[in-house]
Amino acid sequence: MTIVAPSILSADFARLGEDVRTAERIGADWIHIDIMDGQYVPNLTFGPPIVAAIRSCTSLPFDVHLMVNTPEKLLDDLKRAGADRITVHAEACLHLHRTIHAIRELGLKAGVALNPHTPLSVLDYVLEDIDLALIMTVNPGFGGQSFIPAMLPKIRELRSRLDAKGLTDVHIEVDGGINAETAALVKQAGANALVAGNYIYGSDDPLAAVASLRSASVE
């Protein structure tokens, strides 16, 4: 099954609660929430108070993607705000293993994000400890960027590693430049969770956009 996670980074911030409700109404599986600190990445978005404010707008799981330095400082606040899974960037954690286990000790799902230049080897000693690996198919920090095709072999290799270890419950999520065409490519490579922002929220028919991601396939 393909998981579709609309990114509210592309939503209308003036009507954020309604756009979150829309995501559930059109058949999304998760709400993807990009938290940026203006340091790890150039952009600055929102924090735990906004997560808490929209928690009552949907029953969908909150898939929180932390593009911040020292992400461990936000974990308790995000738990209280209603996060269901938290993904951190390997480079942003002084002690990645400790941060992953801190997330799981809060009763949340833990993920690790890999930037385009980040090798899969950073997961070598934590692969059995995570619930999700996020392959960035753009450089992090901004919505609306073009998909980087060179990430497809990376997705394939990660899928091969997970299958070889029997880690079939670990999601491979992709984020960046996802539309019906690129969705087919990443799914064929082994991804099963798709983050899409502009493709859904910028569409004249968001319902059809979600459906096209779920059904996308390479002939």
From TrEMBL:
Ligand binding (substrate): 7, 65, 141-144, 175-177
Enzyme class: isomerase
Keyword Cell wall biogenesis/degradation listed: no
A molecular function (GO) term: metal ion binding
Cofactor requirement: Zn(2+); a divalent metal cation; Fe(2+); Mn(2+)
Cofactor binding note: Binds 1 divalent metal cation per subunit.
Keywords on record: Carbohydrate metabolism, Cobalt, Isomerase, Manganese, Metal-binding, Zinc
Pathway as given in its UniProt record: Carbohydrate degradation
GO biological processes: pentose catabolic process; pentose-phosphate shunt
Leader sequence residues: none
Binding site for a divalent metal cation: 32, 34, 65, 175
GO cellular component: cytoplasm
Reactions it catalyzes: D-ribulose 5-phosphate = D-xylulose 5-phosphate
Active-site residues per Swiss-Prot or TrEMBL entry: 34, 175
The enzyme's E.C. designation: 5.1.3.1
Family in the record: Belongs to the ribulose-phosphate 3-epimerase family.
Function summary: Catalyzes the reversible epimerization of D-ribulose 5-phosphate to D-xylulose 5-phosphate.
Protein name as annotated: Ribulose-phosphate 3-epimerase
Species assigned in the record: Cohnella fermenti
Gene transcribed to yield this protein: rpe
